[in-house]
Amino acid sequence: MLTRFKLSSMEGRIARNDLRGSGTVRFGPIGHRLRQALAVLTTLALLSSLAWADRTLLKPGWNMFSAQQDVEMGQQVSQDAERQLPMLNNSRVDNYLNDLGRRLAAKAPGEKYPYRFKAVNDRAINAFALPGGPVYINRGVIEAADSEAQLAGVMAHETAHVALRHGTNQASKAYAAQAPLSILGGILGSNSVGAVLAQLGAGFAVNSILLKYSRTAESQADIMGTQILYDSGYDPRAMAQFFEKIQAQDRGGRSIEFFSNHPNPDNRIGRVNEEVSKLGGPQRGYSTDSTEFQEIKRYVQSLPAASRAQQMQSTNRNDTGGPGSPPQWPSERFVSFQNSLLRLDHPDNWQAYTQGDAVTIAPRGGLVEDGKGNQALAYGVIVNIFDPHSNRYNQQLQPRGYGQDSSIFLEDATDQLVQEFRQSNRNMRVVRSQESISVTGERALSTYLSNDSPSGGRETNWLITVDHPEGLLFLVFTAPEREFQGYESVFRQMLYSVRINR
Ligand SMILES: [Zn+2]
User: Ligand 1 centroid vs 410 CA: distance in angstroms?
Assistant: First the structure.
């Protein structure tokens, strides 16, 4: 249940996603006992490790992707990245980076991602991480670092971006802000990460949403990076020292690429130093450098620059996405889609994207670029369940099992749903409200809404709401206003095919 998108909880999570992470777990009576047990455990943990007592605790923010999807996405995007970047492809350097990187990643909290570290034959000082594990370090970082601890600092910072899931958090936020209807319908399917990437326009590119971090995210990566350095036995001050050093070069007129991917948060150095003192200063016997690092640094300095061909390739980075092609006309052949909520037929040239119980069914080209690097549903249908916040209204707002109250439930829950839609779609208007219709013999409500279309102009959203044991089942059929009539018969055919699972 917690994995399903709920409008009410989603908004809360977006609002406080940055430093706190998500918090929608509801504690019942068992939860209370669990909390007590956790409190005891926490106390024990504090006694056993003073170093943990004062450190800043960080958790990943709100995310519509699963950790496994982070991994899949990173793997796919890394193929793009490695075609476009001038990879160093030197096993001695890569082995060194991997050994160092894995020691650091072992200290990263949270999900254990399959981290791998590779060198890029680029003298610009930069490094970046993709969701779920791939980390790229420019040779410029190795050449500019004074010590292994400084290089480790940059790598720990990148590792923290992965552990904190900043790439997919950014992508999730952009999606929620630009395409609230799509996110409700759940564009994601466990095996459709490729499609998701295309929809997000989030392939590998310099300005990819996966690599553009907010200053808050930067600050988090700094803090967790410092903690990782500390826990790995390195001088935790080394990361800030390196940033200070390259910042000075930046001011000297040489632009440092690192800061275009990793924007400088306010008081970056001060905040890191604060964390170092929270940790109680460097660990006894901390390490700063190694002869191996100095050897690798000299070796890298001796390697030839990327060939012209490689450089050309890397400047020729192409953005994915772009305006979608016009959708194919719906086929007359229908196929059946089924999940735990319902069964419904759709044209066989439309595709279903599922996540949990939610599904979006759209033609190729039905998801279009909205001009802000996001994809939104322009043609197709979203099916999802809405969980009305019963306490805001009254206890009668319970689906099913409350016989005579079921009509109150249907009307009030539909009102709430429309309110939620309008909160995230400023220009949405109700055109025709709550007309009773019948869906598979059940009373349902039909509501017409008008909204800005991601393909320009206005669109019509035909909202159908039905009482369902799990909450309020809703379908939103969407097409541009001027084309809606043409799609209406297909939408009706889909609606009449609906069979609700009870
Ligand atoms: Zn960063």
Answer: 47
Instruction: Name all domains of the chain by residue range, CATH numbers in brackets.
Output: 37-179+201-315 (no CATH), 334-500 (3.40.1000.10)
Ligand 1 centroid vs 312 CA: distance in angstroms?
Answer: 26
Instruction: Determine the pLDDT at residue 105.
Output: 97
So what's the pLDDT on residue 155? 98
Q: Which residues are found with C-beta within 5 Å of the ion, ligand 1?
A: 218, 221, 262
Interval between CA 397 and ligand 1 midpoint (Å)? 46
∠ at Cα 252 (299, 243), nearest 5°? Answer: 60
- Sequence-ordered alpha helix ranges (H) in 258-404: 258-261, 268-278, 291-302, 308-315
CA–centroid distance, residue 259 to ligand 1 (Å): 8
In the prediction, which pLDDT does 490 show?
87
pLDDT-flagged residues of the chain (< 70): 1-53, 174-209, 253-255, 308-326, 328, 369-375, 390-407
Going from the Cα of 159 to the center of ligand 1, the distance in angstroms, rounded, reads: 9
Helix ranges restricted to H, 375-450: 406-424
Q: How far is the CA of 128 from the centre of ligand 1 (A)?
A: 7
Dist CA 371 CA 323 (whole Å)? 8
Query: Strands 499-500, 342-347: parallel, antiparallel or unpaired by DSSP?
Result: antiparallel
pTM of the model: 0.55
Ligand 1 centroid to Cα of residue 193, in Å, is 24
Residue 221 near residue 415 (C-beta atoms within 8 A) = no
